[in-house]
Fold:
Amino acid sequence: MVDHVDGEKVNQVVDRGKGEPGPGFELPLLLFGGFRTLIDRLHARLAAEGHPDLRPAHGFAMQAIGARGATASDIGRRLGVSKQAAGKTVDRLLALGYADRADDPADARRKLVHLTPRGRAALARSAAIFDELRAEWVAALGADRVQDIETALRNVVPAETAFRLDATSWLGGA
Structure:
């Protein structure tokens, strides 16, 4: 990736020899590239298996809904987006048949969003595909290297942020 500012190259990721350390900005780009590759491959597989309309944002929203259901406000808070943005994503999940909305039995003024059997099946299939994609990485890199990568990331990623879903908040979506 090369960005040009006043004729100068900035944020350039260059091809280096194997094992040579890159500039500091390369690490987050490579981590993001790995993430993006896995997510894109997941969604290609899901599309081929009967879920062509699912998008990454839908997966994050379904995770935010969880097993017990959630309100649009809860979903927005978990994703780091506004209630309105969460509501728009929920409306799409409802239209696609991945979620439904019902009165909260504890408070009739609140509406809870729940995953439908189709939504739960899509999440279960996603988990299985992620296992298959990890196995492909193991085949390409070796089990020890993949385990080392995972261990190293667990060591440097604070536990409280390891599985946060609110990436949109730091990408400017909230």
About this structure: The chain has a mean pLDDT of 86. The longest helix spans residues 117-141. The longest strand covers residues 107-115. Strands lie at 3-5, 8-10, 99-104, 107-115.
